[in-house]
Amino acid sequence: MPLPTLLQNRLRLPVVAAPMFLVSNPSLVIACCRSGIVGSFPALNQRETSGFAAWLDEITEALRNDPAAAPFAVNLIVHHSNPRLEADLAVCVERKVPIVITSLGAVKDVVDAVHGYGGLVFHDVTTRRHAEKAAEAGVDGLIAVAAGAGGHAGTWSPFALVAEIRQFFDKTVLLSGCLNHGHQILAAQVLGADLAYMGTRFIATQESAASTEYKNMLLTARAADIVHTAAVSGVPASFMRQSLEEAGFDEERLQAKGKMDYGEKLKPIKDEAKAWKTVWSAGQGVGGVNDTPSVAELVARLDAEYRAARSATVRLHASDS
Protein backbone atom coordinates (compact mmCIF):
# COMPACT_ATOMS: atom_id res chain seq x y z
CA MET A 1 0.00 0.00 0.00
CA PRO A 2 1.16 3.60 -0.50
CA LEU A 3 2.86 5.07 2.54
CA PRO A 4 1.24 8.01 4.33
CA THR A 5 2.21 11.38 2.88
CA LEU A 6 4.39 12.11 5.91
CA LEU A 7 6.67 9.20 4.97
CA GLN A 8 6.62 9.40 1.19
CA ASN A 9 10.06 10.19 -0.25
CA ARG A 10 11.40 10.59 3.30
CA LEU A 11 12.95 7.15 3.84
CA ARG A 12 16.17 5.68 2.57
CA LEU A 13 14.87 2.28 3.63
CA PRO A 14 11.35 1.12 4.58
CA VAL A 15 12.40 0.66 8.21
CA VAL A 16 11.32 1.83 11.64
CA ALA A 17 13.77 1.32 14.50
CA ALA A 18 11.47 0.14 17.28
CA PRO A 19 11.16 1.98 20.60
CA MET A 20 12.94 -0.08 23.26
CA PHE A 21 12.54 0.35 27.01
CA LEU A 22 15.74 1.69 28.64
CA VAL A 23 17.61 1.31 25.32
CA SER A 24 16.30 3.93 22.88
CA ASN A 25 17.57 7.47 23.57
CA PRO A 26 17.94 10.75 21.65
CA SER A 27 21.34 9.73 20.24
CA LEU A 28 19.86 6.57 18.73
CA VAL A 29 16.77 8.35 17.42
CA ILE A 30 18.75 11.19 15.84
CA ALA A 31 21.23 8.79 14.22
CA CYS A 32 18.40 6.71 12.76
CA CYS A 33 16.56 9.70 11.33
CA ARG A 34 19.74 11.17 9.87
CA SER A 35 20.45 7.80 8.26
CA GLY A 36 17.06 7.78 6.56
CA ILE A 37 14.91 5.50 8.74
CA VAL A 38 12.34 6.30 11.41
CA GLY A 39 13.90 6.48 14.88
CA SER A 40 11.73 6.10 17.97
CA PHE A 41 11.78 5.91 21.75
CA PRO A 42 9.33 5.17 24.59
CA ALA A 43 8.15 8.21 26.51
CA LEU A 44 8.69 6.19 29.70
CA ASN A 45 12.44 6.05 29.05
CA GLN A 46 12.39 9.37 30.85
CA ARG A 47 11.18 9.09 34.43
CA GLU A 48 9.18 12.35 34.33
CA THR A 49 7.14 14.15 31.68
CA SER A 50 9.46 17.16 31.90
CA GLY A 51 12.38 14.97 30.92
CA PHE A 52 10.35 13.46 28.09
CA ALA A 53 9.60 16.96 26.78
CA ALA A 54 13.30 17.85 26.99
CA TRP A 55 14.18 14.80 24.89
CA LEU A 56 11.62 15.82 22.27
CA ASP A 57 13.14 19.30 22.12
CA GLU A 58 16.65 17.84 21.79
CA ILE A 59 15.62 15.57 18.92
CA THR A 60 13.60 18.25 17.14
CA GLU A 61 16.43 20.76 17.35
CA ALA A 62 19.01 18.24 16.10
CA LEU A 63 16.89 17.38 13.05
CA ARG A 64 15.55 20.87 12.35
CA ASN A 65 18.15 21.83 9.75
CA ASP A 66 18.41 18.41 8.12
CA PRO A 67 15.78 18.32 5.36
CA ALA A 68 16.81 14.79 4.40
CA ALA A 69 16.14 13.38 7.88
CA ALA A 70 13.32 10.90 8.35
CA PRO A 71 10.50 11.65 10.83
CA PHE A 72 10.75 10.32 14.38
CA ALA A 73 8.25 8.51 16.57
CA VAL A 74 7.33 8.27 20.25
CA ASN A 75 5.84 5.23 21.95
CA LEU A 76 3.01 5.80 24.44
CA ILE A 77 1.78 3.01 26.74
CA VAL A 78 -2.00 3.38 26.76
CA HIS A 79 -2.60 0.84 29.54
CA HIS A 80 -4.60 2.19 32.48
CA SER A 81 -1.67 1.59 34.84
CA ASN A 82 0.42 4.25 33.10
CA PRO A 83 -0.08 7.36 35.25
CA ARG A 84 1.63 9.62 32.73
CA LEU A 85 -0.43 8.92 29.63
CA GLU A 86 -2.48 12.11 29.75
CA ALA A 87 0.49 14.37 30.48
CA ASP A 88 2.75 12.71 27.90
CA LEU A 89 0.04 12.83 25.24
CA ALA A 90 -0.41 16.54 25.91
CA VAL A 91 3.31 17.06 25.32
CA CYS A 92 3.12 15.08 22.06
CA VAL A 93 0.26 17.30 20.91
CA GLU A 94 2.05 20.48 21.96
CA ARG A 95 5.31 19.43 20.24
CA LYS A 96 3.45 17.92 17.24
CA VAL A 97 5.30 14.60 17.37
CA PRO A 98 5.19 13.26 13.78
CA ILE A 99 4.38 9.62 14.66
CA VAL A 100 2.94 8.21 17.86
CA ILE A 101 3.25 4.46 18.44
CA THR A 102 0.63 3.20 20.87
CA SER A 103 0.86 -0.03 22.86
CA LEU A 104 -1.43 -1.97 25.21
CA GLY A 105 -4.59 -0.16 24.22
CA ALA A 106 -6.03 1.43 21.09
CA VAL A 107 -8.07 4.42 22.27
CA LYS A 108 -9.94 6.61 19.80
CA ASP A 109 -9.43 9.73 21.93
CA VAL A 110 -5.65 9.27 21.70
CA VAL A 111 -5.84 8.74 17.95
CA ASP A 112 -8.05 11.81 17.52
CA ALA A 113 -5.68 13.95 19.57
CA VAL A 114 -2.73 13.03 17.34
CA HIS A 115 -4.77 13.42 14.16
CA GLY A 116 -5.79 16.85 15.39
CA TYR A 117 -2.37 18.27 14.58
CA GLY A 118 -1.69 16.04 11.56
CA GLY A 119 0.32 13.28 13.22
CA LEU A 120 0.20 9.56 12.50
CA VAL A 121 -0.69 6.76 14.91
CA PHE A 122 0.75 3.26 14.53
CA HIS A 123 -0.42 0.59 16.97
CA ASP A 124 1.21 -2.65 18.19
CA VAL A 125 -0.90 -5.78 17.66
CA THR A 126 -0.28 -9.47 18.19
CA THR A 127 -3.62 -10.96 17.11
CA ARG A 128 -6.44 -10.25 14.66
CA ARG A 129 -8.76 -9.18 17.48
CA HIS A 130 -6.28 -6.53 18.63
CA ALA A 131 -5.84 -5.40 15.03
CA GLU A 132 -9.57 -5.05 14.45
CA LYS A 133 -10.03 -2.97 17.61
CA ALA A 134 -7.16 -0.67 16.60
CA ALA A 135 -8.57 -0.30 13.10
CA GLU A 136 -11.93 0.71 14.59
CA ALA A 137 -10.10 3.37 16.64
CA GLY A 138 -8.87 4.89 13.37
CA VAL A 139 -5.12 4.22 13.55
CA ASP A 140 -3.00 4.92 10.47
CA GLY A 141 -0.91 1.79 10.75
CA LEU A 142 -0.76 -1.59 12.45
CA ILE A 143 2.49 -3.06 13.73
CA ALA A 144 2.25 -6.84 13.41
CA VAL A 145 4.39 -8.04 16.30
CA ALA A 146 4.83 -11.63 15.23
CA ALA A 147 6.38 -14.70 16.83
CA GLY A 148 10.08 -14.31 17.51
CA ALA A 149 10.02 -10.55 18.03
CA GLY A 150 11.78 -8.99 20.99
CA GLY A 151 10.03 -7.07 23.74
CA HIS A 152 6.28 -7.59 24.12
CA ALA A 153 5.87 -10.13 21.34
CA GLY A 154 3.06 -12.29 20.04
CA THR A 155 3.02 -15.95 19.10
CA TRP A 156 1.43 -15.84 15.65
CA SER A 157 3.43 -16.63 12.54
CA PRO A 158 4.07 -13.51 10.46
CA PHE A 159 2.44 -15.30 7.53
CA ALA A 160 -0.80 -15.71 9.48
CA LEU A 161 -0.76 -12.34 11.22
CA VAL A 162 -0.07 -10.17 8.17
CA ALA A 163 -2.45 -12.19 5.97
CA GLU A 164 -5.35 -11.79 8.40
CA ILE A 165 -4.68 -8.08 8.93
CA ARG A 166 -4.68 -7.52 5.18
CA GLN A 167 -8.15 -9.05 4.93
CA PHE A 168 -9.68 -5.91 6.47
CA PHE A 169 -6.95 -3.25 6.75
CA ASP A 170 -5.71 -1.33 3.69
CA LYS A 171 -3.53 1.22 5.46
CA THR A 172 0.12 0.91 6.52
CA VAL A 173 1.28 -2.41 7.96
CA LEU A 174 4.61 -2.84 9.72
CA LEU A 175 6.12 -6.25 10.48
CA SER A 176 8.22 -7.08 13.52
CA GLY A 177 10.08 -10.31 14.29
CA CYS A 178 13.61 -11.56 13.53
CA LEU A 179 14.54 -8.86 11.01
CA ASN A 180 18.31 -8.26 10.88
CA HIS A 181 19.27 -8.23 7.20
CA GLY A 182 18.34 -6.28 4.10
CA HIS A 183 16.83 -9.32 2.41
CA GLN A 184 14.52 -9.72 5.41
CA ILE A 185 13.27 -6.17 4.92
CA LEU A 186 12.35 -7.09 1.35
CA ALA A 187 10.78 -10.34 2.56
CA ALA A 188 8.55 -8.35 4.93
CA GLN A 189 7.29 -6.32 1.96
CA VAL A 190 6.74 -9.41 -0.18
CA LEU A 191 4.71 -10.86 2.68
CA GLY A 192 2.37 -7.85 2.58
CA ALA A 193 3.91 -5.34 4.98
CA ASP A 194 4.89 -1.81 3.98
CA LEU A 195 7.61 -1.27 6.55
CA ALA A 196 10.00 -3.43 8.57
CA TYR A 197 10.01 -2.82 12.33
CA MET A 198 13.45 -3.65 13.71
CA GLY A 199 14.45 -3.69 17.38
CA THR A 200 17.09 -6.21 18.45
CA ARG A 201 19.50 -5.31 15.67
CA PHE A 202 19.54 -1.66 16.84
CA ILE A 203 20.26 -2.55 20.47
CA ALA A 204 23.72 -3.56 19.35
CA THR A 205 24.68 -0.19 17.90
CA GLN A 206 27.11 2.34 19.24
CA GLU A 207 24.42 4.95 19.89
CA SER A 208 22.00 2.79 21.91
CA ALA A 209 21.78 3.20 25.68
CA ALA A 210 22.19 -0.54 26.29
CA SER A 211 25.10 -1.39 28.59
CA THR A 212 28.26 -2.99 27.29
CA GLU A 213 27.27 -6.18 29.09
CA TYR A 214 23.87 -6.19 27.38
CA LYS A 215 25.42 -5.71 23.96
CA ASN A 216 28.02 -8.41 24.60
CA MET A 217 25.28 -10.87 25.59
CA LEU A 218 23.49 -10.12 22.31
CA LEU A 219 26.63 -11.06 20.38
CA THR A 220 26.81 -14.52 21.96
CA ALA A 221 23.09 -15.36 22.29
CA ARG A 222 21.20 -17.54 19.82
CA ALA A 223 17.51 -18.17 19.11
CA ALA A 224 17.46 -21.04 21.61
CA ASP A 225 18.38 -18.56 24.37
CA ILE A 226 15.18 -16.50 23.95
CA VAL A 227 12.48 -17.11 26.56
CA HIS A 228 8.93 -15.87 26.01
CA THR A 229 7.40 -15.14 29.41
CA ALA A 230 4.92 -12.88 31.19
CA ALA A 231 6.83 -13.17 34.47
CA VAL A 232 8.77 -9.91 34.12
CA SER A 233 6.10 -7.38 33.12
CA GLY A 234 2.74 -9.14 33.16
CA VAL A 235 2.68 -9.14 29.35
CA PRO A 236 4.30 -12.00 27.38
CA ALA A 237 7.69 -10.74 26.22
CA SER A 238 10.97 -12.13 24.92
CA PHE A 239 14.13 -12.07 27.03
CA MET A 240 17.58 -13.63 26.91
CA ARG A 241 17.74 -16.68 29.16
CA GLN A 242 21.18 -15.73 30.49
CA SER A 243 19.93 -12.42 31.88
CA LEU A 244 16.82 -14.04 33.37
CA GLU A 245 18.97 -16.56 35.22
CA GLU A 246 21.32 -13.88 36.50
CA ALA A 247 18.33 -11.90 37.79
CA GLY A 248 17.00 -14.91 39.70
CA PHE A 249 14.16 -16.00 37.42
CA ASP A 250 14.14 -19.75 37.97
CA GLU A 251 11.77 -22.11 36.14
CA GLU A 252 9.02 -21.74 38.75
CA ARG A 253 9.14 -17.95 38.66
CA LEU A 254 9.09 -17.92 34.86
CA GLN A 255 5.77 -19.78 34.89
CA ALA A 256 4.15 -17.07 37.02
CA LYS A 257 2.57 -13.98 35.49
CA GLY A 258 4.05 -10.72 36.68
CA LYS A 259 1.95 -7.69 37.55
CA MET A 260 1.31 -5.22 34.74
CA ASP A 261 1.96 -1.83 36.37
CA TYR A 262 3.70 0.89 34.41
CA GLY A 263 3.59 3.22 37.37
CA GLU A 264 5.97 0.92 39.22
CA LYS A 265 8.44 1.03 36.36
CA LEU A 266 8.81 4.75 36.86
CA LYS A 267 10.12 4.22 40.40
CA PRO A 268 13.84 3.31 40.26
CA ILE A 269 13.90 2.15 43.88
CA LYS A 270 11.40 -0.61 43.22
CA ASP A 271 12.42 -4.17 42.43
CA GLU A 272 10.39 -4.13 39.21
CA ALA A 273 12.31 -1.14 37.84
CA LYS A 274 15.59 -2.78 38.79
CA ALA A 275 14.55 -5.98 37.04
CA TRP A 276 14.08 -4.15 33.74
CA LYS A 277 17.64 -2.87 34.01
CA THR A 278 19.08 -6.37 34.44
CA VAL A 279 16.65 -8.56 32.48
CA TRP A 280 17.47 -7.94 28.85
CA SER A 281 15.10 -8.32 25.94
CA ALA A 282 15.93 -9.66 22.50
CA GLY A 283 14.14 -11.44 19.67
CA GLN A 284 14.81 -14.82 18.12
CA GLY A 285 16.81 -13.14 15.38
CA VAL A 286 19.55 -12.45 17.92
CA GLY A 287 21.74 -15.12 16.32
CA GLY A 288 22.19 -12.79 13.35
CA VAL A 289 23.63 -9.98 15.49
CA ASN A 290 27.40 -10.29 15.32
CA ASP A 291 28.79 -6.76 15.76
CA THR A 292 28.09 -3.31 17.20
CA PRO A 293 28.36 -0.81 14.33
CA SER A 294 27.27 2.80 14.36
CA VAL A 295 23.71 3.37 13.15
CA ALA A 296 25.04 5.00 9.98
CA GLU A 297 27.18 1.94 9.24
CA LEU A 298 24.32 -0.44 9.96
CA VAL A 299 21.79 1.39 7.78
CA ALA A 300 24.29 1.60 4.92
CA ARG A 301 24.81 -2.16 5.19
CA LEU A 302 21.08 -2.85 5.31
CA ASP A 303 20.57 -0.60 2.30
CA ALA A 304 23.18 -2.48 0.26
CA GLU A 305 21.69 -5.83 1.29
CA TYR A 306 18.18 -4.67 0.48
CA ARG A 307 19.17 -3.43 -2.97
CA ALA A 308 21.07 -6.65 -3.68
CA ALA A 309 18.03 -8.70 -2.65
CA ARG A 310 15.77 -6.67 -4.94
CA SER A 311 18.17 -7.16 -7.84
CA ALA A 312 18.34 -10.89 -7.16
CA THR A 313 14.55 -11.06 -7.15
CA VAL A 314 14.37 -9.27 -10.50
CA ARG A 315 16.89 -11.74 -11.98
CA LEU A 316 14.93 -14.65 -10.55
CA HIS A 317 11.73 -13.40 -12.16
CA ALA A 318 13.54 -12.83 -15.44
CA SER A 319 14.90 -16.37 -15.48
CA ASP A 320 11.41 -17.76 -14.90
CA SER A 321 9.82 -15.81 -17.74
Give structural notes.
This protein is of the alpha/beta class and 321 residues long. It folds into two domains: 15-209 and 294-320, Aldolase class I (TIM Barrel, Alpha-Beta Barrel), CATH 3.20.20; 212-284, no CATH class. The chain is built from 13 helices and ten strands. The chain has an eight-stranded parallel beta sheet with strand order 1-8-7-6-5-4-3-2. Strands 9-10 form a two-stranded antiparallel ribbon.
- The total beta strand count reads 10
CATH superfamily of the largest domain: Aldolase class I
Structural class of the secondary structure composition? alpha/beta
Return the CATH class of the largest domain: Alpha Beta
Strand content: 5-15%
Oligomer: single chain
Mean pLDDT: 92
Classify the helix fraction into a percent range. 40-55%
Q: What gyration radius follows from the Cα positions, in whole Å?
A: 19 Å
Helix/strand order, N-terminal first: EHEHEHEHEHEHEHEHHEEHHHH
Terminus-to-terminus distance: 26 Å
Number of helices: 13
Major β-sheet profile = 8 strands, parallel
CATH architecture of the largest domain: Alpha-Beta Barrel
Blueprint (SSEs and pairs):
Blueprint: E1 15-17, H1 26-35, E2 39-42, H2 49-63, E3 72-77, H3 85-95, E4 99-103, H4 108-115, E5 120-125, H5 128-136, E6 141-145, H6 158-166, E7 172-176, H7 182-191, E8 195-198, H8 200-203, H9 212-220, E9 226-229, E10 237-240, H10 241-246, H11 251-255, H12 271-278, H13 295-320
Parallel strand pairs: 1-8, 2-3, 3-4, 4-5, 5-6, 6-7, 7-8
Antiparallel strand pairs: 9-10
Helix pairs in contact: 1-2, 1-13, 2-3, 7-13
